[in-house]
């Protein structure tokens, strides 16, 4: 049932994200349109200013001319720039004085010619400006279409990506369901096997020869159960079940781990060193299992084990140090792999303990290191984020 | 073998597990009743149990639901057995106010220890074990004989408590190893060493209580 609600949750989140993508795209389109309008207006303003400057410098050129002969080429070159000149007394008076209109821009000037002041009107056409702005608009339209196509493609990719992520999540959810089912299916017959072996073993009166066999049967089913536990724990870590986030005090965690080990194995000398709380966040149960795995490994090969929780410059840290035979340099990476055992190590474990420790610490964004000086002993350091 | 010290209901569809749990409860002087599927809550309460051991997944229902309807009728300590160990299941069990839960496969002695702990907490069975003037308080790791303190190690204390709970029964070394030491212990010598230490401490204040049963093992009896 939790998986169904998980799936519908995933879908609801996905619809929300699709809506978000659509809103973002609309925003980008609006910004693009505003940008295009702004560019066009500024371009037209620039061209207008250019025309004004041309008219002003044309008027100056006319003023500089002293004779009609000098005037003619000036008027010719102005005509080439698209500026018509209406010079009273020289051109036809039909060229009426024009004010600035929608289509034209006009400058009036008085030109001293042979001792008389002659009024002159310079008229520039806005047709060129309109043409140039229009051509900009065409370019902009093409650009906008390309940009819209790109945006549409981007939106589609985002939606597809989101769907792929949602599917990956769903498949992780399916994996978790599978693991829960597998856990149940495997544990049920092992529980029956172990309970039966123990029941036979507890029968009265005891029969020592048979008891030894039944004890072995019970031990082996127990080992099988531990193996299932560890395999499923490892598989869960691989299925990236999100570690539960809660405040964890590593000092308290170390104390709990040491106490739990003391109740099951009172032969080992276990020392706990700590001063004050060492805080981190994470899944307390998973971290406790990791620390217990390290302590179990240490007590199996050493007679003194020191567990310490400290705040170091690298972050909250737990170390488990022992005086056992140590770990050869070439094995210090390998021992974290599943089913890798050191020669001479006890066979009682599942061979998965350190692999679980490593994946647990990785899923908490922490680090684990193993040091072992030539003088013997091993020291495992778990470093977690603050 | 004397009167029962409490009544326990076991609701578990897997017959080997149910039978083993019932046998272990009887051996510890509990009156035990088994059900192989979702019983009617009334049928469970009819036996006036002090505690219920409930499997979570039953053929025709869910142990959590049964727990809810039992609890609606009366306060009843519950220990869940579950073959599902996912975090969500554990949380569901504890939210229902389970007194404890155990993930399958489990050691019978572990279940018995939890049964005793829950019933002790609820005051249904005495806090201490007392036979022949020997008194053992497992929770506080404390033992006396005839009022005099016995300096026992934690293993000796567990061994003594186990022998006393099974008083009058002969127990083989393998039985003691698996029930007292757990599953990594193979060595009969371990039992002999601890028995002799226990005897030495016990016999400072009275006659021998841990008897040798030739060819078999040991028995707690005067």
Structure description:
The complex is a heterodimer of chains A (386) and B (222). Chain A contains 7 helices and 10 strands. Chain A is an alpha+beta fold and 386 residues long. Among the domains of chain A are: 2-131, no CATH class; 246-383, 2-Layer Sandwich (Heat Shock Protein 90), CATH 3.30.565. In chain A, the strands form 3 sheets. A 5-stranded mixed beta sheet of chain A has the order 5-7-8-10-9. In chain A, helix 1 runs antiparallel to helix 3. The two termini of chain A are 35 Å apart. Chain B is α/β, with parallel strands linked by helices and 222 residues long. Chain B has 2 domains: 7-121, Rossmann fold (3-Layer(aba) Sandwich); 129-220, Orthogonal Bundle (Arc Repressor Mutant, subunit A). Helices cover 40% and strands 23% of the residues of chain B. Chain B has 8 helices and 14 strands. Chain B has helices at 15-27, 41-46, 63-73, 87-95, 108-121, 154-165, 173-181, 188-202; strands at residues 7-11, 31-35, 51-55, 57-58, 61-62, 78-82, 100-103, 129-131, 134-137, 142-145, 148-149, 170-172, 210-213, 217-220. The model of chain B has no long low-confidence stretch (mean pLDDT 88). The chains are: A alpha+beta (386), B alpha/beta (222). At the A-B interface, helix 3, helix 4 and helix 5 of A face helix 1, helix 4, strand 12 and helix 7 of B.
Largest sheet: spatial strand order of chain A: 5-7-8-10-9
What is the count of distinct domains of chain B? 2
Average pLDDT rating of chain B: 88
CATH topology of the largest domain in chain B: Rossmann fold
The coarse silhouette of chain B is elongated
CATH class membership of the largest domain in chain B: Alpha Beta
Oligomer: heterodimer
CATH class of the domain at 246-383 in chain A: Alpha Beta
CATH architecture of the domain at 246-383 in chain A, by name, is 2-Layer Sandwich
Q: N- to C-terminal separation of chain A?
A: 35 Å
Element-by-element helix/strand order of chain B: EHEHEEEHEHEHEEEEHEHHEE
Number of helices of chain B: 8
Helix content, binned percent of chain B:
40-55%
Shape of chain A: elongated
Structural class of chain B: alpha/beta
- The CATH superfamily title of the largest domain in chain B: Response regulator
């Amino acid at each position: 049932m939790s998986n169904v609600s998980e799936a519908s949750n995933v879908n609801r989140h996905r619809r929300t994200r699709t809506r978000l993508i659509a809103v973002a795209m609309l925003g980008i389109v609006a910004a693009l349109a505003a940008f295009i309008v702004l560019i066009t207006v500024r371009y037209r303003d620039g061209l207008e200013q250019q025309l004004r400057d041309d008219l002003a410098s044309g008027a100056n050129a006319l003023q500089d001319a002293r004779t009609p002969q000098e005037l003619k080429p000036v008027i010719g070159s102005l005509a080439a720039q698209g500026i018509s000149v209406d010079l009273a007394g020289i051109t036809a008076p039909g060229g009426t004085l024009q004010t600035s209109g929608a289509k034209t821009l006009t400058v009036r000037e008085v030109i001293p010619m042979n001792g008389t002041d002659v009024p002159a009107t310079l008229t520039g056409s806005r047709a060129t400006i309109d043409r140039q702005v229009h051509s900009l608009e065409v370019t902009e339209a093409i650009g906008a279409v390309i940009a819209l196509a790109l945006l549409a493609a981007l939106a589609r990719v985002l939606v597809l990506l989101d769907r792929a992520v949602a599917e990956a999540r769903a498949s992780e959810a399916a994996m978790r369901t599978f693991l829960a089912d597998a856990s149940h299916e495997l544990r049920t017959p092992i529980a029956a096997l172990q309970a039966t072996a123990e029941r036979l073993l507890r029968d009265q009166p005891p029969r020592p020869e048979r008891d030894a066999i039944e004890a072995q049967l019970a031990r082996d089913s127990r080992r099988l159960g531990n193996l299932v536990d560890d395999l499923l724990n490892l598989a869960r870590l691989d299925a990236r079940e999100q570690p539960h986030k809660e405040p964890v005090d590593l000092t308290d965690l170390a104390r709990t781990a040491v106490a739990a080990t003391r109740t099951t194995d009172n032969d080992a000398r276990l020392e706990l060193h700590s001063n004050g709380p060492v805080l981190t966040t994470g899944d307390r149960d998973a971290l406790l299992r990791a620390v217990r795995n390290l302590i179990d490994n240490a007590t199996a090969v050493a007679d003194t084990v020191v567990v310490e929780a400290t705040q170091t410059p690298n972050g909250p840290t737990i170390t488990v140090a022992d005086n056992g035979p140590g770990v050869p340099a070439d094995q210090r990476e390998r021992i974290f792999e599943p089913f890798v055992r050191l020669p001479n190590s006890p066979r009682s474990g599942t061979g998965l303990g350190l692999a679980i420790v490593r994946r647990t610490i990785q899923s908490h964004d922490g680090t684990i290191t193993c040091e072992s000086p030539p003088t013997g002993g091993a020291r495992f350091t778990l470093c977690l984020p603050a | 073998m004397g009167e029962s010290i409490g009544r326990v209901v076991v609701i578990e569809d897997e017959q080997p597990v149910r039978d083993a749990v019932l046998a272990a409860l009887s051996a510890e002087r509990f009156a035990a009743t088994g059900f192989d599927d979702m019983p009617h809550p009334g049928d469970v309460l009819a036996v006036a149990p002090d505690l219920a051991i409930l499997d979570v997944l039953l053929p025709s229902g869910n142990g959590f639901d049964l727990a809810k309807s039992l609890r609606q009728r009366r306060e009843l300590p519950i220990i869940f057995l579950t073959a599902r160990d996912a975090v969500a299941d554990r949380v569901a069990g504890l939210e229902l106010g389970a007194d404890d839960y155990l993930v399958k496969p489990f050691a019978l002695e572990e279940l018995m220890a939890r049964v005793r702990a829950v019933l002790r907490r609820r005051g249904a069975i005495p806090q201490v074990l007392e036979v022949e003037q020997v008194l053992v308080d497992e929770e506080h790791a404390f033992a006396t004989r005839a009022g005099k303190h016995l300096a026992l190690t934690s293993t000796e204390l567990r061994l003594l408590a186990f022998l006393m709970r099974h008083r009058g029964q002969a127990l083989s070394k393998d039985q003691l190893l698996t029930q007292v030491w757990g599953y990594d212990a193979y060595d009969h010598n371990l039992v002999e060493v601890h028995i002799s230490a226990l005897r030495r401490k016990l016999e400072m204040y009275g006659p021998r209580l841990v008897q040798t049963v030739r060819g078999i093992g040991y028995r707690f009896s005067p």
